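Lecture notes, continued. The same structure-token format from the folding unit now serves as the input rather than the output. Read the line below as a description of shape only.
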């Protein structure tokens, strides 16, 4: 990416999307990846760092490059799904890179998907620095941006893998009633959490409709 610098000169900065090399070292919120003798400092969420192998081991991380006037920071993720959530979180007002990493440090992408879909403010306020107002903002601003496929996987109730399951049928029923698919997923996700495994389609639909009417 080319950006203009002072004095009218054109300075070129490379946008890094992926790094593959050997893990050199890790610390509180960061890792250094050695690639051909050059160490790249990469900021990571706590969950990401915990999943990394021991130093000296070959690793590969998806990278989000954040460029500002006086900063050039690299943020590393285990996969593209985690990186996509980082991007989505940073679009929310008052959520910077540090807060986005804190959220991903406590909640996996699937947990975050479910929390947003189910409008579970309690799950979000477990993150240090996320109060009720920010949790509500996250839910409001991201509820229609959460990938439907991600919702299905996160709910873990057979929606993605078993057509005809009570949860998937309940979602379909709400969609047929005119609700948006994201709304239906969110309502049924919350209903499934509250009712537990084995809930009938009728119970899920009734609970989902009650959730949508509030």
């Amino acid at each position: 990416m080319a950006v203009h610098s002072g004095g009218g000169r054109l300075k070129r900065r490379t946008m890094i999307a992926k790094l593959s090399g050997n893990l050199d070292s890790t610390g509180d919120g960061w890792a250094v990846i050695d690639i051909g003798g050059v160490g790249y400092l990469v900021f990571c969420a706590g969950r990401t760092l915990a999943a990394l192998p021991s130093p000296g081991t070959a690793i590969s991380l998806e990278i989000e490059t954040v460029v500002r006037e006086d900063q050039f920071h690299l943020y590393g993720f285990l996969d593209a799904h985690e990186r996509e959530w980082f991007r989505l979180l940073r679009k929310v007002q008052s959520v910077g890179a540090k807060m986005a990493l804190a959220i991903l440090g406590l909640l996996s992408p699937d947990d975050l998907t479910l929390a947003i879909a189910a409008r579970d403010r309690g799950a979000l306020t477990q993150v240090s620095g996320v109060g009720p107002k920010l949790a509500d903002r996250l839910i409001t601003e991201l509820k229609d941006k959460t990938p439907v496929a991600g919702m299905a996987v996160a709910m873990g109730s057979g929606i993605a893998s078993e057509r005809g399951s009570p949860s998937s049928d309940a979602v379909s029923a709400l969609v047929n009633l005119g609700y948006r698919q994201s709304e239906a997923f969110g309502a049924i996700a919350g209903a499934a959490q509250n009712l537990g495994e084995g809930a009938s389609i009728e119970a899920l639909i009734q609970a989902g409709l009650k959730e949508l009417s509030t």
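Point for the exam: The domain at 81-142 is CATH 1.10.150.20 (DNA polymerase; domain 1).
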